[in-house]
Amino acid sequence: MMVAGEVSFDTLGFILVILAAFFSGFRWSLTQILLLRSPATSNPFSSIFFLAPIMFLSLAIIAIPVEGFVQLGQGLRNLVEAKGGFMGICILLFPGLLAFLMTASEFALLQRTSVVTLSICGIFKEVVTISAAGIVFHDPLTPINVSGLLVTIASIAAYNYIKITKMRKDARKEVEGRQKEVEGDGIDAYGEAAEPMLAPPKQRDGRASPSRASEERSRTASEVAANKTSRENE
């Protein structure tokens, strides 16, 4: 719906897009396994250090036969002539820097959350791109395109709401479990708390204070001594 009217349907193109989406998710799943299970790639930058050469070679193997050395050299020459040597190099390096930072942030996100969350972020990026195209460059958006944007934003909001609700529920269960463990550690063999502050409220209220308990023990000891003395006198 967001791109309705921009393209015409083609069966081969549709199959290629579906395959690209599948292999993109598969790639992120393998990357998450590397980040979480391999000590050598336990942080985003070490993962990039090992994966970047492989990605460069893969792209070069595909780009060189398709584009050709002559076309690549001509494009670089045209860029330098149009923008100058320094600006031409900056134009080449700045997108690479942005891509590096984006990849590092994606790897960091994968290390802390799931592949689904990363996919949701990618969809939100497309929403921002289409919205910016309509606002900044005044690209025409039909009612169907706007409806697609609204449906996508609502879906992202619903996913975030469900995710946050589940996280809060899990955190609440974890806190309750820890409280039960603390209360269980404070119960002695007779079912009373070894420390008064660790006892449940009812048990702590019904339990005698230390001063009262010492007074009762001293009174009992004095009564026993008095009875023993009276028996000896008899």
Number of strands: 0
What oligomerization state is this entry in?
single chain
User: What is the helix tally?
Assistant: 8
Helix fraction?
Answer: over 70%
Contiguous runs where pLDDT drops below 50 for at least 5 residues: 187-209
Q: Whole-number average pLDDT? A: 76
Features:
234 residues, mainly alpha
3D structure, described in words:
It is a single chain. With 234 residues, this protein is mainly alpha-helical. Helix content is 80%, strand content 0%. The chain contains eight helices and no strands. The chain has helices spanning 11-37, 44-67, 69-83, 85-112, 115-135, 143-185, 201-206, 210-233. Mean pLDDT is 76; it is low at 187-209.
Strand-helix topology:
Blueprint: H1 11-37, H2 44-67, H3 69-83, H4 85-112, H5 115-135, H6 143-185, H7 201-206, H8 210-233
Question: Summary?
Answer:
The chain is mainly alpha-helical and 234 residues long. The protein has helices spanning 11-37, 44-67, 69-83, 85-112, 115-135, 143-185, 201-206, 210-233.
